[in-house]
């Protein structure tokens, strides 16, 4: 089977955008491919973290993976730092990477802008991301549009290494969903919905109560005029609500446009809120049940052992190619 790999940082809250743009697709892919899903806690360290809070966020993220539908009998779910090969391969790949290509990463420019001090890890974390992917002979990487540049860097590093040392790495490809890859902010639909946004009104957390979800959607920014049509350029707010509604309800955007042709923005918002609550309610309940039990720790321990075995095999090939073994 082809192999799929992806990871999410355990920092901040997971949003509806994370679910619709990533987790929902992970659930489908685990039945189509051999799947490795990682809680990338080492990436979270590129910004200051409270240790106790980070530990809890790791468990919460694992609970949300399971609550969203990840089946540990079908997919390997594990924590990045529990597999040491990630850190070691990252260093080896850094020695094969160039300052210029890493410096062109737009996410580094965005995250470092305005900061008095910038950790080296924030600059080099795309190389750690490449190590995460390459360790598992990954064929496909489901990502949002904003991560496409990082996958291209990963491919460049793998191709460079293979050119010099032989066919050591599988060269991965990005898989970007056609719809829902970028769920936008509720209070500024020109920007991506992000768990790092300081305004809670901008995103819907997967752990928000039903009434909070409804209030946030009813207060979402819309556009001039009354037409309910999908037009990202001229109607970004309405378009975002249509995408959220479509992905939560299973109805096509064209079907929704017809349904609301003679209705107003309030009708669209209410229907979108109903669709979002129907999806998020069960996820929240299952996550809370998982957090109260011991299943999370058992799943992560088993996943780390499975990931360790695969990762060590890849690391050994790389070490031998470099003359280290």
Write up this protein.
It is built from 13 helices and 5 strands. It is mainly alpha-helical and 325 residues long. The strands form 2 sheets. The chain has a 3-stranded parallel beta sheet with strand order 1-2-3. Helix 8 links the parallel strand 4 and strand 5. The two termini are 30 Å apart. The model has no long low-confidence stretch (mean pLDDT 93).
Tally of separate helices: 13
Residue share in helix: 40-55%
Query: What is the typical, i.e. mean, pLDDT?
Result: 93
Ranges with pLDDT <50 over ≥5 residues?
none
Structural class: mainly alpha
Give the tags:
globular; two-stranded parallel sheet; 325 residues; mainly alpha
In short:
With 325 residues, the protein is mainly α. The protein has helices spanning 16-29, 41-44, 51-68, 85-94, 99-103, 106-112, 120-134, 148-165, 210-218, 236-249, 253-259, 265-292, 295-322, and strands at 3-8, 34-39, 75-79, 140-142, 173-175.
Please describe the topology of this protein.
Layout (H helix, E strand, L loop, with lengths): L2 E6 L7 H14 L4 E6 L1 H4 L6 H18 L6 E5 L5 H10 L4 H5 L2 H7 L7 H15 L5 E3 L5 H18 L7 E3 L34 H9 L17 H14 L3 H7 L5 H28 L2 H28 L3
Parallel strand pairs: 1-2, 2-3, 4-5
Helix pairs in contact: 3-12, 4-7, 4-13, 7-8, 9-12, 10-12
């Amino acid at each position: 089977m082809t192999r799929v790999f992806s990871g999410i940082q355990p920092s901040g809250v997971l949003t509806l955008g994370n679910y619709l743009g990533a987790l929902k697709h992970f659930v489908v892919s685990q039945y189509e491919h051999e799947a490795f899903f990682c809680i990338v806690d080492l990436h979270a360290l590129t910004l200051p973290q409270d240790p106790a809070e980070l530990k809890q966020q790791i468990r919460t993220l694992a609970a949300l993976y399971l609550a969203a539908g990840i089946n540990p009998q079908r997919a390997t779910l594990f924590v990045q730092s529990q597999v040491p090969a990630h850190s070691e391969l990252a260093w080896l790949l850094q020695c094969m990477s160039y300052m210029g290509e890493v410096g062109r990463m737009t996410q580094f420019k965005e995250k470092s802008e305005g900061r008095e001090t910038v950790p080296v890890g924030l600059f080099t974390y795309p190389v750690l991301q490449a190590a995460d992917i390459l360790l598992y002979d990954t064929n496909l990487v489901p990502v949002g549009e904003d991560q496409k540049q990082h996958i291209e860097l990963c491919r460049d590093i793998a191709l460079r290494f293979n050119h010099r040392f032989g066919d050591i790495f599988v060269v991965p490809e990005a898989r970007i969903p056609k719809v829902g890859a970028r769920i936008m902010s509720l209070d500024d639909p020109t920007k991506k919905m992000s768990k790092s946004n300081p305004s809670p009104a901008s995103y819907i957390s997967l752990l928000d109560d039903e009434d909070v979800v409804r209030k946030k959607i009813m207060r979402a920014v819309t556009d001039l005029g009354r037409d309910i049509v999908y037009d990202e350029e001229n109607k970004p707010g309405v378009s975002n609500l249509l995408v959220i509604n479509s992905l939560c309800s299973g109805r096509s955007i064209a079907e929704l446009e017809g349904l609301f042709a003679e209705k107003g923005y309030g009708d669209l918002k209410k229907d979108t809120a109903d669709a979002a609550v129907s999806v998020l309610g069960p996820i929240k309940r299952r996550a809370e049940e998982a957090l109260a039990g011991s299943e999370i720790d058992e799943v992560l321990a088993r996943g780390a052992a499975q990931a360790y075995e695969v990762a060590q095999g890849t690391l050994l090939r790389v070490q031998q190619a470099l003359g280290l073994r």
